[in-house]
């Protein structure tokens, strides 16, 4: 078990922040405090025993799907699809449309909220949903079509605000981000990053995205195999320390965020 994973699960490693310390100074100066909103300080209704009020559970199910669990027990699955799913239906799912492994045509009927990262009627998707102790919003981006053209607003970066943390899932991002995108994102604490190196973006372009967002914790996804993952990690190590988790699930709090940006690899499919 790496040092970063120990602090995620126990909050004891000496080289990470303790208490409610702030993010790196550069990130605070460059990013507006758009996240978290008032929902982050709302009193909890029912607290799952395994999570404190300031903790969020993140589990890598596989491909681009994570389950995010809030202190009140709200479960969210990202890029929910028909191939890789959590074992039990979450309350909320987000989806994107670049490939069928990022959306479902038949979501489980037990799911209360299905948030699509594109608008079937055209134009950008526009989500801003609060359920319990989590706020979910999206920032629209573009995708490449199979013919090589641009489909505007075909993807969404979803942002999950809970427990004083802002977690962003890049979805099937196909381009670097503009200042307008970054302003809409605001401060991001945990970034879930596709690192395939081609289907989404080339590694050098994805590294530019990571630098522009400057999240303290970055978690790779969408890497298919170990060689693809290692190609990304080789580039990432030039800028960030890399830790490996023994388990697919970690517990994260604002106090346990790294002092400087780091990459944490969770085992998954």
Automatic annotation (TrEMBL):
The keyword Calcium does not apply. SUPFAM superfamilies: Metallo-hydrolase/oxidoreductase. Coiled coil: none annotated. InterPro entries: RibonucZ/Hydroxyglut_hydro (IPR036866). It holds the Pfam family Lactamase_B_3. It comes from the Bacteria. The keyword Signal applies. Keywords: Signal. Residues 1-26 form the signal peptide. PANTHER family: UPF0173 METAL-DEPENDENT HYDROLASE YTKL. This is L-ascorbate metabolism protein UlaG, beta-lactamase superfamily. It comes from Microvirga makkahensis.
């Amino acid at each position: 078990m790496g040092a970063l994973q120990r602090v995620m699960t126990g909050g004891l490693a000496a080289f990470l922040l303790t208490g409610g310390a702030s993010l790196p100074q550069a990130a605070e100066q460059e990013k507006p405090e758009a996240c978290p909103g008032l929902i982050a300080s709302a009193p909890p209704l029912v607290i799952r025993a395994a999570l404190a009020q300031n903790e969020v559970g993140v589990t890598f199910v596989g491909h681009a799907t994570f389950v995010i669990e809030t202190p009140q027990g709200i479960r969210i699955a990202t890029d929910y699809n028909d191939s890789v799913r959590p074992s039990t239906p979450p309350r909320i799912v987000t989806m994107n449309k670049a490939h069928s492994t990022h959306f479902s045509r038949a979501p489980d009927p037990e799911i209360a909220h299905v948030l699509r990262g594109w608008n079937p009627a055209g134009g950008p998707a526009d989500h801003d949903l609060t359920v319990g102790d989590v706020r979910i919003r999206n920032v629209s981006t573009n995708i490449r079509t199979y013919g090589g053209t641009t489909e505007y607003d075909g993807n969404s970066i979803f942002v999950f605000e809970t427990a004083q943390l802002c977690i962003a899932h890049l979805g099937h991002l196909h381009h670097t981000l503009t200042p307008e995108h970054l302003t809409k994102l605001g401060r991001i604490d945990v970034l879930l990053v596709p690192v395939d190196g081609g289907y989404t973006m080339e590694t050098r372009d994805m590294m530019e995205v990571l630098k522009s967002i400057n999240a303290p914790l970055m978690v790779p996804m969408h890497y298919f195999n170990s060689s693809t993952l290692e190609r990304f990690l080789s580039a990432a190590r030039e800028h960030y320390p890399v830790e490996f988790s023994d388990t697919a699930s970690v517990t994260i709090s604002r106090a346990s965020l790294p002092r400087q940006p780091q990459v944490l690899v969770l085992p998954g499919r």
